[in-house]
Specification:
- Helix 8 packs across helix 14, helix 9 packs parallel to helix 12 and helix 12 packs across helix 13.
- Strand 13 and strand 14 form a beta hairpin.
- The strands form ten sheets. Strands 22, 25, 26, 28, 29 and 30 form a six-stranded mixed β-sheet that branches.
- The N terminus is likely disordered.
- The protein has 14 helices and 32 strands.
- The longest helix has 17 residues.
- About 25% of the residues lie in helices and about 20% in strands.
- The chain has about 600 residues and is of the alpha+beta class.
- The protein is elongated and about 115 Å long.
Length: about 600
Amino acid sequence: MKKRIKAIFFILILVCTITVSAHESHAGTTVTLKERSIGEIMGKYRERPFKIINAWWHDVEYDVEPSSAFPYTAGKVKDEYLQEALDALNFIRYLAGLPDDVYIDETYTDYAQHGAVLLAAIDTLTHNPVQPGDMPDMFYDIAYKGTSRSNCGYGHNNILSAVLSCMDDSDSYNIERLGHRRWFLNPSMQKTGFGYYKGFSSTYVYDWSRENDIKYDFISWPAKNYMPVEFMNRNTAWSVNLGEEYDYPSVNNVTVRLIRRNDGKTWTFSRKISMDDAGNYFNVDNDNYGIQKCIIFRPDIEEYAHNDIFDVTISGISKGGHSADIKYTVQMFSLLKPEPVKADKQEGTYLNGVEVALFCDTPDADIFYTTDGTMPTTKSNWYMEPINISETTVIKAISCINGEQSKVSSFYYNIEQVSKWAVADIEKAISLKLIPPPMQKNYRENITRADFCKLVVNFLVQKTGKSIEELLRKNQVSIRYSAFTDTSDKEILAANALGIVNGDGKGRFNPNGMITRQEAAVMLMRTANVLGITRTGEIPEDFADSDDFADWAKDAIAFVSSLKDKTGNKGIMSGVGNGYFSPHGSYTREQSYVTILRLYNAVK
């Protein structure tokens, strides 16, 4: 886990420059702030969820790696990291009642990315960086636009965590104005851009391009009515930015009364307590950090909890010289609910092992799991990385957040052991449906006569696309249900009718008996004959143990060793090594499955 560095932010100080711009009228219509319900807020978050509590966990990755040394390269942050930062910014604005349609402007992102690289080059956090002696003028000019027109920070692992820190903005350096927060809540913002390199972040905020005017009485944070508790901590300052109709407030006149309805605890803020040892804070700032007329207060509170309700009353403010008090309520609620755990691999059978990644639709949730069949708790294994499974296992998992747990999710993985040489071919055969599901196990065991019949009949069905009945009709044969006294299995009787297998001559088939390699060769040749293949056109292999071949098997062994798999130019059934075929040797299930795949690839 990467060590966290204490985050530092400097406020974008452009007060004088933007005072005129901020009050320019727009050509579009006027819209008002929206009041959101809990359901609407939760629905909006689910549209594009992002980490809140654990936002700092992941590092930024690049499509093009930046360089903060000569020759300088701005690089390009992967889109997913820009998008999650934008999602957070828009969700923050949505909570405050503002339009959540800010989008990334490529020019702004170019400024911001150059700016982050410049800050990394001088290893200093500043809005007015000096030009390194070896940095080209063009690079510096672009980068300076990024640093001088952005919320800049240092010490975050990614842009998302930088955005969330900007929004909190309640450290001792920034609390007196909450400038970063106010830039994000600027109603006129329509576009932004992000940059990041070596811990330095840059979010472009110098934008008033929105066509519609946003009419508001006040903009508050935490948001009026309903506020996700995940955005609050005991050090988070509250802010209220007054709309245009209000006169500029004075720190000498404003009083804020905050009451926690749950227990009646009351905080009163005025100039008398600008800051105290308990953590209470109060200030009024009228400078223009995107928006003006900012009333700031922070209660000495241990924590915020789900269903905490606060009543806020602000007095000592006016409109046109007339008293105009503000009263509103904030109810804290848990945005993040523990959704059921999911797995990236479907339950089922896997060869030799499988790696399973767990996740859930709540980005910040912790996942706990077991692999021994017991029910998971918060004391079980804490999920950190994919789980490697090498034997049949049931994974049981829960997600946890805000003291709540999800229902238990279970995932069953059956692990079958297969020789390494056969894995790829068997996986391919399964994908082609050449191995019936009941036969996808016990791969290293010898195959029975019954199962080999099922295998070759299924092969004919899959290769031709015809049912068993259609195959029988095409070959002008029919099943004799009295053929054997020891089986009535349809696939075996169909294989017998098609001339692929016979009994022992005494009316029995011996379905549980094992087949030898030469018997398998005969059955494979006859299966190919059903498809009209009677000659291979290739030279058969010459085996050192050919004198051991049964007379009835010689032609079949020559046939299967010379019929080639067109994808690998191998005989569909070759020797066991050192020039031997081993006609009386056993035939395993995995060997038969590989053979069937080769036959499939040999037949047009």
